[in-house]
Design goal:
single chain, alpha+beta, four-stranded antiparallel beta sheet, 5 helices
Length: about 200
């Protein structure tokens, strides 16, 4: 039955740069004005089911624009994996399908993003040196106040500095939190957060 079909939808938020993976039933997706937001609340996927067609508006990490894409309702509800790509970059910006194939596709996409950031970083220290300096200083302040912790309960963490972001890793479970460090708004967003919570990994 339609309401029993489950779909996993995944994308990387262009605002907070976190991977977003959500599961919804076909019944939920068929609801008028169905929106699948990133936890940051600043981006999301809009799904509109129109008889034999499904139309999606997808935020794109690579060109920072929204793409409108469509497919048949049959493919949307039954294909193992559907990939929607950014025409400007040629890279995937959204996946729809079964749980495991979508998770695998997202892992590959995250690895691709990491490689691209590393290659870009080799051409210069950071995307914006001033922004990175401010982000690192703010993270040090939050850390000194004991404001960085993991949902697993650990308060020890490691830091990895990338070309346009900083990643915090839990020292106990290796859970990760990516902090954008590219624009002045990234500094403003971080300054509004007295604490940071790393999403712990289940063992």
């Amino acid at each position: 039955m339609l309401e029993n079909a489950k779909r996993t939808i995944a994308f990387i938020c262009p605002v907070c740069r976190q991977p977003v993976i959500l599961e919804r039933s076909a019944f939920q997706l068929a609801a008028a004005g169905s929106r699948l937001p990133c936890p940051c609340g600043k981006a999301g996927v809009d799904v509109e089911m129109m008889g034999g067609q499904v139309r999606l508006r997808v935020p794109c990490l690579f060109c920072e624009q929204e793409h409108t894409v469509s497919c048949s309702t049959t493919a949307f509800l039954h294909e193992k994996t559907l990939a929607f790509s950014c025409a400007a970059s040629g890279l995937d910006c959204c996946y729809v399908g079964e749980d495991e194939p979508v998770f695998s596709a997202m892992r590959r996409l995250e690895e691709t993003v990491d490689v691209l950031e590393s290659e870009a970083g080799a051409q210069g220290t950071f995307l914006n040196d001033l922004v990175m300096e401010e982000i690192l200083e703010e993270l040090r302040d939050i850390g000194r106040r004991g404001g960085i912790s993991c949902s697993c309960g650990c308060r020890e963490y490691k830091m990895k500095i990338n070309y346009s972001s900083v990643e915090l890793f839990c020292a106990r479970c290796d859970g990760a939190l990516k902090i954008p460090a590219a624009t002045m708004s990234d500094i403003e967003d971080l300054c509004c957060k007295p604490t940071l919570l790393i999403r712990g990994r289940e063992r």
